[in-house]
Amino acid sequence: MLTMSQVTARTAVPADTIRYYERIGLLPPPERTSGAHRRYDERAVDRLLFIRGAQRLGLHLAEIGSLLEVRDTGECPCEPAETLLRRHVAEIDAEMARLAALRRELTTMLSQMPGPCADPAPGAWCPPVEEVTRSA
Fold it and tell me: Where does the record place the HTH merR-type domain (predicted)?
């Protein structure tokens, strides 16, 4: 059995985060010593590493919890995981398209910049307001 500090050292997950995961049900409550100190087994370490890895992939804690719930029933979580990952890939693709369009707009505006300007005149904006409002 491992102490909290041993688990944090092996997983790089802070103790406060581990306690939070216990509170929200991502990590089952650990065994306790007679002095109420937590003791974790290797399954807890494995689970924490999975949670961190899934977070690095952009999954939210609720989504991770759903996958863990399926796994905890003894079922294979691969099918729901595939659905979840496909949805995230689609979201990333949409965001990349949005950012590419934004980049095109910005480079167009940059190419139309007048260069050095004198004192700003009333109603004159840089970039031109009509360009900004047209692209909004």
Answer: 1-70
